[in-house]
Amino acid sequence: MTIAVLDKDGNPVTINTIDDLITVIGTGASPAANTVQARLESLKGFVDGLEGLATTLNTQTDTLETLIASTNTLLTTQNGYLDTVETLLGAATPAGTNNIGDVDVLTLSGQTLAFGTGASSTNVPRVVIASDSQTAQVGNSTSGVASSASALNIPVVSYLYGYNGTTYDQLLVDVTTKGLKSAGDVAHDAADAGAPQKVGGKATAALSGETVVAAGDRTQFYGELDGAQITRNGCSLGDLIDGTASNTDGTSTAVIAAAGAGIKQYLTRVSLSNTHASTSVMVALKSGTTTKWRVNVPPGGRELAFDPPLKPNAANEAWNFDPDAAVTTIECSMNGFKSKV
């Protein structure tokens, strides 16, 4: 509140503060106790103290407001993190759904795992961690080789990898047959590489006693009881061809019919019989109409053996024999095999 008074000289003075009032009244260096001047001086000290407290309070209030603003910023950031975590976990997943409970990692199929140089006996799975190479050994016997696949719960078909010093190569294991599934490392029709791999066969006393497999099935090789491999000359029995025919008028005559599109027929043996008592005749062997071989056939006849076989002119052609003249009688028998090559 503003007050207007007159000083000792009669001049008007506006009183706004206690300092203004003390200035008008005058207190001197040390006002006497219990005087108006002394009480005004004491009141001035209280007012100055209150003003100082008010300034300090304002400063602290500003600081508190700054802290509150910073806290709000941190809470906003924290809420963002929590939203991200809820998104990753699935906000709709009930509490406890992702809890898989206690997991025993020290036993396998009811057997306690042995680490390093631990127990080594039947049905004790061992885990060996080596520092000298990137390998691992798993087994349930003293030799480290699984003696019971089911005891280790190994899948029926599993994959193992062997480290060759640079890369890992996959091995296919068939536990049902207790063996590795061997596969070549060079594909069909690829350039040959690497060392040969030996294969074995099955010994048999007679092929006629073996069970015939279906076409398209896998089959095994057979050998004699002394290990000699059993082979056939040039073809399978299913590809053998043969035929007979006779001629008396000197014209081309079919002996073996065409085998069908894409099929070629090779001759390995031809028998020509001439029943005339004195006349020889030149005979042509023809693939279709193309002469592939000519031979003079005297009375009695001639035998021809082809090694390598006599190849045809083209696929899907019949084999014919064609005497140069009419002779009674020319007999012809042919033997060979068919192929797509």
Please explain how this structure is put together.
With 341 residues, this protein is an alpha+beta fold. The N and C termini lie far apart (126 Å). A hairpin with a 5-residue loop joins strand 1 (3-6) and strand 2. Helix 1 (18-25) packs antiparallel against helix 2 (36-89). The protein has helices at 18-25, 36-89, and strands at residues 3-6, 12-15, 107-108, 111-112, 114-115, 126-129, 136-139, 157-163, 168-174, 179-181, 202-203, 222-223, 240-247, 253-256, 264-274, 281-287, 290-297, 302-310, 319-323, 330-339. Helix content is 18%, strand content 31%. It contains two helices and 20 strands. It has four domains: 3-68, no CATH class; 107-181, no CATH class; 200-231, no CATH class; 237-339, Jelly Rolls (Sandwich), CATH 2.60.120.260. The chain has a four-stranded antiparallel sheet, with no helix packed on it. Strands 14-19-16-17 form a four-stranded antiparallel sheet, with no helix packed on it. Residues 133-154 have low confidence and may be disordered.
